[in-house]
Amino acid sequence: MKDWFTRESRSGLKLVAGPFGFSLLLLAAPLLMMLLLSFWTQNYLDLDRTLSFANYEEAWTHPVYRMLMQRSLVISILVTLCTVILAFPMAYFISFYGGKRKSLWLFLITIPFWTSYLLRIFMWKIILGYNGVLNSTLQWLSVIEEPLTFILYNANAVVLSLAHAWAPFAILPIFVSLEKIDRSLLEAARDLGDTAFQRFIRITLPLAMPGIVAASLIIFIPTIGDYITPKLVGGTDGLMIANMIQVQFSKANNAPLGAALAVSAMLIVGMIAACFVFFNRRYLRSQS
Amino acid sequence: MTGAPRYLTIFVGVYLVFLYAPVLLLPLFAFNDSAVIAFPLKGFTFRWFEGLAGESTLLVALKNSLIVGISASVLSTCFGVLAARAAARYDFLGKKPIMSFLMLPLVLPEIIVGVSLLIVLVQLGIELNVWTVILGHVLICMPFSIAILLSAFNNMDKFLEEASLDLGATRRETFFRVILPLVMPGLISSLLIGFTLSLDEFIIAFFLTGTEPTLPVYIWSQLRFPSKLPGVMALGFIMLVLSLILLTLGEYYRKKSAALVGSGSSEIRNG
Description:
The structure holds 2 protein chains of 2 kinds. By secondary structure, chain A is mainly α. Helices cover 73% and strands 2% of the residues of chain A. Chain A has 14 helices and 2 strands. Chain A has helices at 7-37, 54-61, 63-97, 102-110, 117-128, 133-140, 155-165, 167-179, 183-191, 196-223, 228-233, 241-249, 255-279, 281-287, and strands at 41-43, 46-48. Chain A has a two-stranded antiparallel ribbon with strand order 1-2. By secondary structure, chain B is mostly helical. Helices cover 77% and strands 0% of the residues of chain B. Chain B contains 12 helices and no strands. The chains are: A mainly alpha, B mainly alpha. At the A-B interface, helix 1, helix 3, helix 4, helix 5 and helix 6 of A face helix 1, helix 3, helix 4, helix 5 and helix 6 of B.
């Protein structure tokens, strides 16, 4: 146990006190306040401050909230899967075939993401719309006669837009873990008679797992709270839990229920993320 | 680049089209002489850009965003310097939990940060304005500042600090004249990243902004009106060009000063 009173410990604590105090005041306290609020109830205009589980009962049993929560989870998991699967070959290409231009390639990957997030998602609405870019191009090419309608205002559109929005957050960590792979391992495996596929499955993929796990977490957790994308391209079939939380805090004027929904969503996501880390722990340990 | 299997090259090509599609369409519609955002394109025009100059609410939103972006990035960089220096230099009680707690906003959905802050501010009866947005943005920028500055402090040559102290400089002088210039590249990229994050952040600003909208909140309000869309495209294009210039500059200076620091420290060690 380190001593509180050593000079070193005190100097460090003195330095970190500012940012730590700020975060305690503006992050920890508000999160606790939200937890507390979720146990209160809204009585039309004023708050009933007796503790009760009423909000949680409603959040977990009301069919609309259950459905939204399930859909948010399914969408988040799909987004994570799609993004990682699409990003992996790209990261692999840069790491193994990027030659001397790796940093240029990485820059190229990140350029599209310096536009406003809001506008990027909105552009997908324009691309996927009834008279949108995709439909008019396909019609012009005579691939289709009637505009496709299953591509906008549903969960597909949300997954597609988010798989685009989170792409660099998957490419970069996977690239980093691919870069760390000792190339002589692959050569040795080749000399010992492994095929390209065997080398990939037995060496590249396991060693890239830390990056894949990190990318999955970075994407999965924030995605569940995404508000803009479902609102812009999701239609009514693609709305997610964050949209309902926002409604509770504004129009519905039921902040305690909104807080209970937010806390529930965080609990579920936290549990899934913890399980995911647990099942992948051997990959994470090998890295350090 | 040679030697990549053909299917991988094709995939990379298609994926790049996917990544760039939204960005490339933005200028197309920004200069398109039609009030409708759809193909076929009509003709070339500057009128959407000219129209922007007359939007007084846009200018107010821009001013708010600049205030928020600059304050949030400066504050988060200051906190970042403190936390990163503490973590890189000292071993203190509860270092791991404290540092992980500071990085927490990185993995917290932004709506959670926004909502929980809103609850506290409403309970305390504090009026919502640009300052409440700044507080929220400092929280989400800080993990990025800490990560960037931590690597800057860790990469710094420790002997230069010791040399400065041995040669009689005080701790304060050493910090301002030796350490700070050495981590300057990290400082600049922390400021740039913080500013860019804050400028683009929507959901926290949406919850905490009150009657003073930031740029994303303004854009959000415009998206509801189809007649405003070409103007939004033009605005988006300007923002894209500006952030590209800013980033290229930042990257240039980062490389330049990184090279300076690198050569300087090796000279001292060798000589």
